[in-house]
Amino acid sequence: MPTSPLVLVTGPASSGKSEWAESLADQSRRRVIYIATAQRITTDPEWEAKIQAHQQRRPPNWQLWEIPQDLAPGLADAPADSCVLIDSLGTWVANHLTISDPAWEKLVQELLATLKELPAIKILVAEETGWGVIPAYPLGRLFRQRLGTLTRHIGIIADEVYLVTGGYVLPLHHLGMPLDSTQLLI
After folding, report:
1. Which residues sit in the known binding site?
2. Residue 184 placed within a domain
3. Residues of the chain with pLDDT under 70
4. DSSP conformational letter for 128
5. CA-based angle 169:173:176, to the nearest 5?
6. Is residue 183 part of a domain?
7. In which order are the strands placed within the sheet that holds 63-66?
8. 38 assigned to some structural domain
9. Cα 11 from Cα 121, distance rounded (Å)
10. GO annotations under biological process (predicted)?
11. Which residues define the annotated binding site for GTP?
């Protein structure tokens, strides 16, 4: 295992992905920087409760960086001896749904380059959205396509990939092999 691995934790909603990612970060024995991509919505009690549940699970010594937009530049500031946990890619994608495809492609390339270069341990949480009904509206289809492709890009370069579903953690990096990334479009 590399000294600064890239780990992807993916799965459906409420599957335990964040909890698994948090346990991996805790096991790193490094200073943990928790990067929250969510934006607070004080008028949405359900969303606020979800954020609060995440906050209550985290150890008090973990640093919190709230980075809903500029993820690559924010990651670049992480110390080499840290463990960076990004929760979640789905929320980060949702925060960028209104930008053009060329601007999105640039953001993805910047993020991928930063993830490859950053010497810290990197743990990313991503939701699986493409296993259900095709969204009936264009913005939903754009979200599903962008998140699915981004997750695939990261999975291909990741050292470890876990699928959390049905109460189990499956180590995909041991069970499967990555697809050819040369044909992958953003």
Report:
1. 11-18, 36-38, 66, 87
2. no
3. 1-3, 181-186
4. -
5. 100
6. no
7. 63-66, 31-36, 82-87, 121-127, 6-11, 160-165, 168-171
8. yes
9. 20
10. cobalamin biosynthetic process
11. 11-18, 36-38, 66, 87
Cβ atoms of residues 90 and 127 within 8 Å: yes
Q: Pick the closest to residue 130 from 152, 114, 161 (CA basis).
A: 152
Q: What is the pLDDT of residues 30-80, one digit of tens each?
A: 999 999 998 888 888 888 888 888 888 889 999 999 999 999 999 999 999
Residue 54 is among the residues annotated as catalytic for this protein: yes
In this structure, the number of other CB atoms found within 10 A of the CB of residue 132 comes to: 9
CATH code at position 116: 3.40.50.300
- The number of domains in the chain is 1
The vertex-145 CA angle with 150 and 87, nearest 5°, equals 45
- Its domain, for residue 158, covers 6-176
pTM score above 0.70? yes
> Is 1 inside any structural domain?
no
The pLDDT assigned to 37 comes to: 95
* C-alpha to C-alpha distance for 144 and 140, rounded to whole angstroms: 6
